[in-house]
Design a protein that fits this description.
The chain is 28% helix and 32% strand. With 361 residues, the chain is an alpha+beta fold. It has a single domain, classed as Rossmann fold, CATH 3.40.50. A hairpin with a 5-residue loop joins strand 6 and strand 7.
Length: 361
């Protein structure tokens, strides 16, 4: 795939916040300023792998290309998001609650974002289910595992259910209504070859339109045998839009070494995890682990300081004080900044047929 195509996809998915300011009282001209809000999802664990709770904004230090950054918002687990502002002559950081949005959002068949029911705290989770011909033997068991996972997501705000074989089906757009998601899970049928990376790229683009925590949980029963985009492009797009990818494979890691390596690299790059299940019991445990991870993530955001680097920017997140020695951090390690492209929007070759079959139910 040509690099220019991926560059456009990445550019179109980055979240830009536009603001205006007056240059002086005598000058009515307006200057438009584009600022990228960088969002990080951070897991903090002790040496035994237990999640660490109760940390405060001042416990975290973030640098981008070794440039110190100031936190703009902070959120722990399923607690409300707070905005961080400097107050007083001493420049002390003060937390202010961020008002909840008036409604939840949904991704329509054309990829647009629309209102969908009441809003809720927590992450936006996209479930991407493998309905290719790899899944024939264990299809019903897979549906059961996903349904149990959906029911257990008490702290998650909204859930979308997508399925894929050769094309992507947006079976249930992002919604807070769990029964609708469960109906979507039960209505899926096994299909054609597996174009995982094509369909995952489209799912990442949908997630990129949203603010706050967003995660994609991929349930796969086999390798990709039909995609035209490389997994490295998908991983980089997810990194640059702050989207976590969790991979659950029903294949033994030793049986699929190539897919295993790809799944591990992709999930690690985005701050997620990869699971390889030998049994249906292992799958349920993997879903439970993802649920716990989402419930314990710290969500941090910042507006980058001036930086001449317009390519890949490295991010470092560390803890200060005693916590720096006792705890471990898992998050993405950077993102790519791209200049505006001059060509029209593009998508994977499968996108045209995907949109045609993706009408929400």
């Amino acid at each position: 795939m040509k690099k220019s195509l991926f560059s456009l996809l990445l550019l179109s998915s980055l979240i830009f916040l536009s603001g205006t300011r007056r240059t002086s009282a005598q000058d009515d001209s307006r200057i438009t300023v584009n600022v990228v809000l960088v969002q990080l999802n951070v897991a903090v664990t002790d040496r035994k792998g237990n999640y660490v709770t109760g940390l405060k904004p001042e416990d975290f230090v973030i640098t981008e290309d070794k440039i110190p950054e100031k936190l703009a918002t902070f959120e722990e687990g399923n607690e409300p998001t707070t905005r961080l502002v400097l107050r007083g002559p001493d420049g002390k950081m003060v937390s202010q609650p961020v008002p909840a949005e008036p409604g939840a959002t949904a991704i329509a068949a054309d990829g647009s974002v629309r209102p969908s029911g009441p809003s809720a705290l927590g992450a936006n989770v996209f479930i991407l289910f493998d309905t290719s011909n790899y899944m024939y033997r264990g299809f019903v068991f897979a549906q059961d595992s996903i349904a149990d996972f959906v029911r257990s997501l008490e702290g998650v705000g909204n859930v979308a259910f997508y399925s894929y074989s050769r094309d992507l089906s947006r079976a249930v757009p992002l919604t807070s209504e769990r029964p609708a998601v469960l109906r979507g899970v039960r209505s899926t049928v096994a299909g054609d070859d597996a174009a995982l990376y094509n369909c995952l790229l489209l799912t990442v683009k949908d997630a990129a339109r949203l603010t706050g925590r967003k995660a994609i949980v991929v349930f796969s029963n086999g390798p990709d045998n039909a995609s035209l985009v490389p997994p490295e492009d998908v991983a980089e797009l997810a990194q640059s839009t702050g989207t976590i990818i969790y991979m659950i494979s029903t294949r033994d890691a030793q049986a699929e070494p190539v897919s295993t390596a790809v799944f591990e690299r992709m999930s690690k790059a985005t701050g997620g995890k990869a699971y390889f299940s030998k049994s249906w019991k292992d799958e349920k445990e993997a879903f439970a682990s993802i649920r716990d991870d989402l419930a314990h993530l710290y969500s941090l955001s910042y507006y980058p300081q001036p930086n001449a680097n317009h390519g890949w920017r490295s991010i470092s997140v560390r803890l200060v004080g005693e916590a720096a020695q006792k705890y471990r951090i898992r998050t993405r390690d950077g993102y790519r900044v791209l200049k505006p492209a001059q060509i029209a929007s593009a998508a994977p070759p499968a996108a045209a047929s995907s949109a045609a079959e993706a009408a929400p139910q």
